[in-house]
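Summary for the lay section of the report: proteins are chains of building blocks that fold into shapes. Here we show the chain for VOC family protein and then a coded description of the shape we predicted for it.
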Amino acid sequence: MLKINSIHHVAIICSDYQVSKQFYTEVLGFEVEHEVFREARNSWKLDLKVAGKYQIELFSFPDPAARPSRPEAAGLRHLAFEVTNIEGAILFLSAKNVQTEPIRVDEFTGKRFTFFADPDGLPLELYEI
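The coded shape description reads as follows.
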């Protein structure tokens, strides 16, 4: 059986970074953990803590497409599930005829991850801890 430990984070691409940053920090009260401008992508990435835990990634991209799917569209970017063994999780999904992308490494954390999709095409991620 696939063992998912918890939800690791939710990533959201916003259409107006400053407005969204103000909403998530000043209206909802999420704490800024880390903020970085990714020059190569002309994109901001804001890591937010919810109830003392890192749970929300807020991204900006120039002119994101107005659609609820990938790639890099306004709205929900993907939902990530924390796993201990990414290869085991991929094998389990493969046995259920779920295709995953090649494993990648997060450039900021060095952690491994992969993406797959639900039946409606919603991007989902396995993130190894």
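Put simply, here is one thing we learned. The domain at 6-128 is CATH 3.10.180.10 (2,3-Dihydroxybiphenyl 1,2-Dioxygenase; domain 1).
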